[in-house]
Amino acid sequence: AVRNIVRKFFLGFVVIIFTDLLGKSNMSWYEGPIQIMNPSIPYQARIPGGAMPGKSVYVQGYVPHDSEGFSVNLKPHGGHNDDIAFHFNPRFNEPDVVCNTCVDGSWGSEERHPEPLQRGQAFEIKIKMKDYGFKASINGETICKYPHRVSLNDVDAVSIVGNVHVNVLRAEGGTVRSPEVPYIGPISCLT
Q: What is the C-alpha radius of gyration for the chain, rounded to an integer number of angstroms?
């Protein structure tokens, strides 16, 4: 049977949809070197396949001189509500990094950590997903190990809000989902 191949780009993944002649589709996830460059803030994207131990969200950017703060949020249920599984919030007027969870509109107890960032500074944030929780670092320095308050299985979106310039946002690691239609050969460059 002839198959129509449609490629869609998501955070860190290529979604390949194979459609047969009857219009029935089989979707598979290919984890590739795709990254979002210079997204407009606020920004939200689904993480196809969801969060899992071994996967990371990487953000590289710059803090404007007038920034009061920003947040990187890992969200459940496609980010379609206000729930936030992990709220990572560098604040420059306090100065702390605040970590928290919001479920059904209610915030949990805040965890506060010393703020290593400064206004006017470039940064790299990496949030690693672990069995026990999230391990967040800024410029290679571990800031916190935050225990899960929402099931990691429910986390499948990332959002960035606040006054920040993001150069690169990507998902790293994890596993490749097995396709229903067999994948044959490498995918090197998709346009």
A: 18
